[in-house]
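Re: duplicated header lines in exported structure tokens

Our pipeline writes sequence and tokens for each protein into one text file. With two proteins the header for the second block appears twice in some exports. Here is an export where it did not happen, for reference. First protein block:
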Amino acid sequence: VYVNVFVVAASKEKEYEQIIRETFTPIVLTDNFPRAVISIVHLLAVAINAVSLALLDAGVPMLAVVTATSCGIFPDGNMYLDPTSVEEEQAVSWVTTARSSSSDGVLTCITNGLLSEEQYFACSEACQRASESVAAFFRIVQQKKHPLDPTS
């Protein structure tokens, strides 16, 4: 007899995290890595990056690639880029930005909690630098999948 237990999540994001975790747990070969911890953190940035990679992989023509990152602000004033789920729960506020690879502007910015203008701009700048790293990683993945033919 198979019984599926549904837990009421505190928020839609937590519910989606649970669905994703339950979907992939039977698929990921965790026995090969018994000490590995698979953690699904700040779902919005992850989802945006996943959509970008899926569109790239499918060969969908785009004007630019979108990358997203998150920054949490903690009670002591420290900022963490892409905080873990435990860190995210301890954060007093956070910023998630999505950026285009074709411009320096922000496509989407979501904030949660109270933060000063200085904290907002510090997080935004940190997210921009992190997004540049994510975009570089996307380029490496694409180049490995579709290497340029040196004869053409």
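Second protein block, exported in the same file:
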Amino acid sequence: MARTSKKRKLVDPQQLEEARRLEEEAQAQGQEDMHEIVEYEQDFQERGKHKPAVRYNPQPYTTETLKETWPALAIDAASNTSTIREKLSWFGESYVGCEELPEDLAKRVYQGKRVLFSSEAQKAETMKFVKQLASEHATELSQRKGQTVEPADVQFENVSKEEKSHMISSLIRGAYDQPFKLDADASPILKNVLRNLSNNHTYHTEHTQQFMGSLMQNLPLKKAKAKAKSA
């Protein structure tokens, strides 16, 4: 009886290695998926557990708890001074908790904006950076024009007496501009315009006066009423 012999196929080692690698990756991925499922089930069980309620126990306000916002409470002379300083800081775009770097202050000075210095040392250091900015700007202009441009002499200018008086009036004395008023027999159109301007927070008293003055000048004059003829 004749035997039939089957030829064995040769296995490529690279294919065998690739198959083993894929099998290992599949096992690792399966373990990772199983780990995520276990973590999800544990998290779901933890969230489903009953948690004891936390009783709300509000603490009353005291002087100690209000110390952080004390400048906003105008109670005595010290708090009034702190409130004024806080408003002056807003004018110079300086806010509580923000670090004021001399480089940033120098840019504001060079651009002609308001700056509030905390000390003379900070002012002196800032002006050094201002001169440096002026020198860099002069160098750029020299390269652009092809001729030497001297740096601008930038000096710090204090608040004028008129502006300082206005600040004292508004921040300390509380003297504000009087709102614009119309006569009792004014046109309903003017009253409606004034009402809309009063509701617009971007329009201040000075702007309202200028606008209403220009509007009233361009309106036609009222015709004089004919006098009744005497019998």
